[in-house]
What we know:
By secondary structure, the protein is an alpha/beta fold. The chain has 11 helices and 9 strands. It has helices spanning 22-30, 57-60, 71-74, 82-85, 97-106, 118-124, 126-136, 151-159, 174-182, 215-223, 234-240, and strands spanning 6-10, 35-42, 48-50, 111-116, 144-148, 166-169, 187-191, 206-210, 228-231. It has an 8-stranded parallel β-barrel, surrounded by 5 helices. Helix 6 (118-124) packs across helix 7 (126-136).
Amino acid sequence: xxxxxxxxxxxxxxxxxxxxxLLALDAAVAAGVRWVEVDxxxxxxxxxxxxxxxxxxxxxxxxxxxxxxxxxxxxAIAVGEPARFGNRxxxxxxPTVARFADWLARHEAVQAFVELKPESxxxxxxxxxxxACRRALAxxxxxxxxxxxxxxxxxxxxxxxxxxxxxxxRGFDEAVAGxxxxxxxxxxxxxxxxxxxxPLPRGPWDWVLYEVGDxxxxxxxxxxxxxxxxxxxxxxxQHALGDAPxxxx
Length: 249
């Protein structure tokens, strides 16, 4: 390929490891991936942690909400996704964002997209979620970019000095294009199935297309103009397409 694909590990190499854990992140980086994506929820005590859902049912087979647990209590719970992996990962834990920052500091070639989840924004407010992440990630301030479905929290992030933000959109039209330019968004993230057919809509952003699960889909998206692909199976896909991970852009 003339332009290397910039692979993004969706919640780490989550096809083969528990999502949003250091195990999944380590596996992605070991395969040469240089961009990772993680999700953030806030615990009851306001500590940000790497979790996609606001409850623990899927990752721990437990009914609790993360909003009912302090960070110390959460640290004692295995998040090894027993429905997928059985008892293989009983030592897996949901790292705090501060611990993730330490991990990122040790991997100097890696950058991160950090998704601010809507459930925590609704519970704690935009400012609280954003500032909790900014404080925890301050040691690696130039190595992460906030992303979210919530346009307003990204506007707050830009006003607070975050030079690069990524808006996660549910589709695309001229209204979305106008709001993306106003941010301005460095990236637009979208489930590839929710975009109109044909070449990717152009703008002053890069598209990051996610839910890419197989090489045929990835190749078709590249032919439509995609250069950033996000996948839980990023390790397998980059080899299937014969493409080395791109350098950070």
